[in-house]
Write a structure and sequence with these properties.
The chain is an alpha/beta fold. It has one domain (13-257): TIM Barrel (Alpha-Beta Barrel). It has helices spanning 8-12, 17-24, 65-70, 77-94, 113-116, 118-127, 147-159, 175-181, 191-194, 201-217, 229-237; strands spanning 36-44, 49-58, 100-104, 134-139, 163-169, 186-189, 220-223, 242-243, 252-253. It has an eight-stranded mixed beta barrel with strand order 1-2-3-4-5-6-7-8. Helix 4 (77-94) packs parallel to helix 6. The longest helix has 18 residues, at 77-94. The radius of gyration is 18 Å and the shape is globular. It starts with 7 loop residues before the first helix and ends in a 12-residue tail after the last strand.
Length: 265
Amino acid sequence: MFPDRPNALKRYFEGDGDSLDCLRCRNAGDLDLELHMAFQPIVDLERQEVFAWEALVRGKDGALADVVMAEVAPDDLYIFDQTCRVLAIATAARLGMQERLSINFLPRAVYEPAACIRLTLAAARKTGFPSERLIFELSEREPIENPAHTLKIVRDYRSRGFLTAFDDFGAGYAGMSLLADFQPDLVKLDRHLVSGIAESAPRQAIVRSLMRLCGELGVRVIAEGVETGEELSALKALGVTMVQGYFIAQPAIDKLPAVSEETWV
């Protein structure tokens, strides 16, 4: 099992020379944080099944991701990103996950895609989790400081057979330009577009347009942040077939929560 205490990553790969070399090549220090993974399902309404589980980092006593990130120094972004990837895969394997696993990544923490994917692949081999089930999410809330570098990462991941997703789409920084330059497999509509959509004609018009645009580009749409039955019904009426949110299931630490039966009504 992947240990979730400080210095975990080097201990986990002890004896694996290639993986330890990957850590040494960046002179990665020890991450002095207690980390856990929570999981939330992304469901396919047409198939009435879980499409994927998003891995969400949690800290000591269940601290949310924003609290955890506030404790990560800029020089520790690489080891933090790598630790979260490995922890997500190791926990998913331990829980017997059979569906896809969606992992958020930080472009700023990836100095070279081909090199920085080595620990991810090593974790998949070590745990027996099929790497072809991995999805990598890029958040639009994360400022894209180097668009060319970000596109290089996404293209590298696609070439390896990973699905790619743009998270928080419509929230702000570079969504449309990234969508124009490179089409991911999935886009996740920002929760602020989803919130109150049942009573909001403008939100409905925007989502309807995005559905049409993404359909023309061959990109599948996921609506995240679904918190009420009314929102779910409105999204279904707009043709959205994949959703995520508290109405479906709340994230659960170190477990795969059950999907609410109301999701399928």
